[in-house]
Write a structure and sequence with these properties.
The structure holds 2 protein chains of 2 kinds.
Chain A: E1 13-17, H1 21-24, H2 26-39, E2 42-46, H3 52-55, E3 59-61, H4 68-81, H5 87-93, E4 106-107, E5 110-111, E6 114-115, E7 120-121, H6 146-154, H7 159-166, H8 170-181, E8 190-194, H9 196-199, H10 204-217, E9 228-230, H11 237-242, E10 249-250, E11 254-255, H12 264-269, H13 287-299, H14 324-332, E12 338-342, H15 346-349, H16 353-361, E13 365-370, E14 397-402, E15 411-414, E16 419-423, H17 436-454, H18 460-463, H19 477-485, E17 487-488, E18 492-494, E19 497-503, E20 521-522, E21 532-533, E22 536-537, E23 558-559, E24 587-589, E25 594-596, E26 678-683, H20 697-702, E27 707-711, H21 712-718, E28 725-729, E29 734-742, E30 748-750, E31 753-755, E32 757-761, E33 796-802
Chain B: H1 7-25, H2 31-38, E1 48-53, E2 62-68, E3 78-84, H3 102-106, E4 116-118, E5 126-127, H4 130-148, E6 150-152, E7 158-161, E8 165-168, H5 175-188, E9 193-194
Parallel strand pairs in B: 8-9
Antiparallel strand pairs in B: 1-2, 2-3, 4-5, 6-7
Helix pairs in contact in B: 1-2
Classes of the chains: A alpha/beta, B alpha+beta.
Chain lengths: 808, 199
Amino acid sequence: MTNSWTDIKNTDLVIIMGGNAAEAHPCGFKWVTEAKANRGAKLIVVDPRFTRSASVADVYAPIRQGTDIAFLLGVMNYLIGNDKVQWDYVKSFTNAPYIVKDGFTYKDGLFTGYDEAKRDYNRSSWEYELGDDGYVKSDINHPRSVWNLLKQHVAIYTPELVERICGTPKDKFLKVAQMISETSTPTKTMTSMYALGWTQHSKGSQNIRAMAMLQLVLGNIGVRGGGMNALRGHSNIQGLTDLGLMSNLIPGYLTLPTEKEATLDVYMSTRGFKPLRPDQMSYWQNYKKFMVSFLKSMYGTAATPENQFAYDYLPKLDVPAYDILRVFELMHEGKMNGYFCQGFNPLLSFPNRKKVTSALSKLKFLVVMDPLQTETSRFWENHGDYNDVDSSKIQTEVIQLPSTCFAEDEGSLTNSGRWLQWHWAGGTPPGEAKNDTWIMGQIYTRLKALYQKEGGTVPEPILNLDWSYKNPAEPSPEELAKEMNGSATEDITDPNDPTKVVLAKGKQVVSFAALRDDGKTACGCWIYSGCFNEAGNNMARRNTNDPDSTGAYPTWAWSWPVNRRILYNRASADINGKPWDDSRKLLWWDGAKWTGYDVPDIVPTAKPDVVGPFIMNPEGTGRLFTRGMMRDGPFPAHYEPFESPVTNVIAPKVRGNPVARVFKGDMEQFGDVKDFPYAATSYRLTEHFHFWTKHQHNNAVLQPEFFVEIGEQLAKEKGIALGGWVRVWSKRGSVKAKAVVTKRIAPLQCDGKTIHIVGIPLHWGFIGETLKGFGPNSLTPFVGDANIETPEYKAFLVDIEPISGPTA
Amino acid sequence: MNMELSRRQFMKGAGVGLAGTTLGALGFGDIEAAYASSIRPWKLANLTEIRNTCTYCAVACGIIMYSKGDLKKGEKAEIVYIEGDPDHPTNRGTLCPKGAALLDMVNAKTRTLYPQIRKPGSDKFERVSWDQALDRVARLMKDDRDKNFVAKNADGVTVNRWLTTGFLAASATTNETAWCTYKVVRGAGMLAFDNQARV
């Protein structure tokens, strides 16, 4: 989230699209209710299903899954056509005026530079035109300004085309567009709440970009009650992503080097981020300080200026990323030997379950650390229809390690609003369950001991890993948190007076502003710097004071970066530093510095008419055109899901996202509408959380049994009764379920065709207190988003038929 | 817990104060002590309060757990009740149908209690000791790493990567666990590293 849950109360308009907060995030949704009750805010819900969020919405608009971009670009077209633009914001704070290179085009659904064989673009023309001074040329009236290109790009998305693609009736679409457009005034704002309903598509990143662009055009980023607010699924998914537990990341959104970057200097040469406009801040110019401090926290005294701070020890990538789809593809090809699942159940959560089972069966060993018995840890066990395997043929050794659950564990979690909140352990772990930090400490110290004793292949990165914890077999949460915050590794002296020590060796740095690129500081995760400094554990703060009830709660826990509660908050004031909306002011320029309710997202003395609010971008502005930074286009464009009930009306020859990676053999496993006529989607229920609550008695009682949800018309056509048994199948698998026939999933009319939708909730497996069942991953395709490889779970094709139920 | 007055202390104080004022005002001073002692102490007052966060979604509702026995004092502690934390700015004491049943997670029948190993081709898990399990893990890791570690690529560039073993990290563990895990996984040279951000 750019903002926070408690900030939602400040909004005038909530749009829930790509999520279902009332059911999946009920206690967060209360802030929507708060805004409606106290501010008279309105709620729009756009969803294929009439969800519980929709049931309390002021306007509900149905949409076919996988067509969000057409809808959102339709809204953009409406805003531009009706001059509902926050012009002062757009001209000063976005890249709308910048001129794009000659040669950039978009035609027949494709941008310049497409290579069909590689399924990739040459993105060199997706770039600004630079002047002789090295800065971007700027003139909003130029025919190739970002603004004029955007206007041209969205012009085709008329309300009629939106209806044709999305199935959203024109009057509903226009009502939504009109409500959104009202927030273009500086004194009205809208918040966007979204979740996996937007990410789990082969163009998920562009779904989110499309809304972010609307929010920029409306001036709704950086303000109270505005922003792009990812609801986020798991309790610490934000934290694990911040900490870089992904194939290609280093903590704090630094990136792991590729094998083309043989030295630290070469690595740094493309990360200088020189400002693209005069006097801009371009905060990533500090990149090296964060990188060197990270290397110091990894390798301690073994990281020296002479050895590039042990840069060689870091693994180097040969492909963009070893994301889960690539890893399971490699596993399926028999190229992986070992795999660890720490609190993760891929057998139920990765697409094309048949392929997942086959992949796991080819491993030599699988280690599972979990508080619960997971299906993955028992993937080799026969459970009849629900896990039809022959144990004797599976040669994988499985080691199951019991870990503690939340109640027995201490430490911090990062919520969707970037708050790091500390919690304490209260219960004795059952049986022999152990904390994850203990388990990781044990694995590391034992592996290290083997290398010390036996030697082996390149033991140095393991032997020299900094592990100077009081008890190496069990690092404590405090020690680890302090390490993430960062400290001085040597006395740091005043540059003007070398006799004066400003930070003594071993002291915690106050924030990332104190980090250095000479090895005198170590810091595990720069954006978390400040969480546990000399003032103590700021994440454990519990002061509920909220000055003037802005919803910021500045002394409750700690939020990254530097306790800032709203990102880009400088944009809450105009070019002169005057708040757009006095009743909702956040920061203002007092003539000498920035002041207000939040920690300024800019140097406090940076003059308002000089330094732009988007300091992480070398332009200083928000991007409506992303240059070559996304693989599938500098603007979003409508593409159908890989399995779609209709042809792409804009580009009939293009299947799915034209640059999404498809492995050999998977393209043949995509189904066509002639064999699989119904558009399926997956979702969560209020009573369940993924595959955990099926182990909980109360939740199992509330929702005991797997079902699929279909509309009344489809039920009638197929002779399916409410509560009757059905079989649902795709080209990759088949499930049996009870049918829940509702008015909530009504058929849509798209391009003259009636489209029926089949809803498949995701909470069942073969272990726990519920009845045994299946999940959507038995059916879904093995393809992900073109930029970050999130699997396409929300839009795929199935067929359905009534069957006789299992005999009791 | 850096609160000035815990709710438990407040409840204890309030009980005595109530007896003191109402009965005292009516002139029944003598029976005050007898009456106060006859009131069964509020059940939760005998328990230890611990602040925690709901383990499910990222709204991160504050919760209060009540345990018999105090873990901090080295006692065996059994969580007997969990409720929403009324001081928490986001949830203000409320919980959803998942959070309200959190105690069932702690006490789930399907909690894993012991390290177990399933041998190749077997149809069952066998209980082992932690030492056996962890030594086995370290052995399997080292053998695979030693055999398949790529120190340099075809161009002679140092790449120090280990591609044949991968790690899926959890997304309900703490940041501290995550950082500890990061160090071990990257330290060993693994690239097949991911979390639940996508699913």
